[in-house]
């Protein structure tokens, strides 16, 4: 989640070492990042299997980083 701030910090620094770290971290290591998205989940079901109580919770979804 905080990789956007990290990328911005490296871009603002704009020097050789910052660019090297950015290319290594985002292009070579290719770490995954995640975003939290709301998902409706069933908390309680009736005896015949129908959901009778719902709640929205945030669930993490992995995504690829943008290249540096």
Automatic annotation (TrEMBL):
EC number: 3.1.1.4
Keywords, comma-separated and alphabetical: Lipid degradation, Lipid metabolism
Pfam family, any one: Phospholip_A2_2
Keyword Metal-binding: no
Residue span(s) of domain Phospholipase A2-like central: 5-36
Annotated InterPro entries: PLA2-like_dom, PLipase_A2_dom_sf
Cofactor: Ca(2+)
Keyword Metal-binding: no
GO biological process: arachidonate secretion; lipid catabolic process; phospholipid metabolic process
Molecular function (Gene Ontology), one example: phospholipase A2 activity
Protein's recorded name: phospholipase A2
Species name: Frankliniella fusca
Lineage of origin: Eukaryota, Metazoa, Ecdysozoa, Arthropoda, Hexapoda
